[in-house]
Design a protein that fits this description.
It is built from 10 helices and 12 strands. β1 and β2 form a beta hairpin. It is an alpha/beta fold and 296 residues long. The longest helix is centred in the N-terminal third of the chain and has 15 residues. α1 crosses α2, α2 crosses α3 and α5 runs parallel beside α6. The protein has a 7-stranded mixed sheet with strand order 8-7-6-9-10-12-11, sandwiched between helices. It has a 3-stranded antiparallel sheet with strand order 1-2-3. Strands 4-5 form a two-stranded antiparallel ribbon. Helices cover 36% and strands 23% of the residues. It folds into 2 domains: 78 residues, Helicase, Ruva Protein, domain 3 (Orthogonal Bundle), CATH 1.10.8; 203 residues, Vaccinia Virus protein VP39 (Rossmann fold, 3-Layer(aba) Sandwich), CATH 3.40.50.150. It is elongated, with a radius of gyration of 22 Å.
Length: 296
Amino acid sequence: MIMSFCPGNSKSGGLFFPLHTVLQPATRQLKDAGIESPRLEAEILLAHCLKIERIKLYTRWNEELPESQVRICQSLVSRRIRQEPIAYIIGYREFRSLDFLVTSEVLIPRPETELVVESALDHIFGQARVIDVGTGCGVIAVCLARERPKVHVYAVDISESALKVARANAIRHKVADRITFVRADLLSPFGPLAVDGIVSNPPYIPTHEIRNLPIEIRDYEPRTALDGGTDGLTCSRSLMKEAKYILKRHGWLIFEMGFGQNDSLVAEVQEEGYQVQKVVPDYAGLDRVMVARKIA
């Protein structure tokens, strides 16, 4: 509500509020709601409302905002107080120094998924064909296409809404001509020995653990992108089984995994006819990305 802010100055046309008198109470409200970085997020929301870069807030510190604009800012703050992810509120998230459009139809990209991209870049070169399974907003597919100009990526997702977001991001980053978007469940549309690499950030959270996730994940992000079944490995198992028929000889299977899943996945990947080349830890030192190669 507008009463949360300091009284403004009355001018012809209504009330006006100095920018700093809007930012300060917004920061306080976010802090009281338990938001981890309240000042930063208040600045992000206000800059988004004003359609300016965050750094420019400080050059406009005493600028007066009309009441209508302050109300819009307060509505954004109220959404964040309810634990809605800030990426959904402002409509984008940075990933590998690029801004990606996101909506509530897609998982919000995490820094850990950059390790999937980096692992793929370490092993896939030249005129390769790669499938990104469960592409979501398209961060893996778009980054591979941008950083490997000769690679063609097939971005697969079961959700048409997710594919729409991924297409928009491919256009935004000028790689739409080298990404084919496919609506499918895993690898069903692809024939044998079709591609050089398969990459994925599959759902890997055990069903019973979802209720314990932070509210902003549990209540806002799409469950289909989170729920990995009883032990979190349902999708990963299906992926490795189907991938061995799609990958060319010595093709790469690279996918993200959850906490404590490494030992089971290493054993199962090897049983399916792959050689585990590397397990990549995340920034907290936890096993996060499996890099395997089809033996035959």
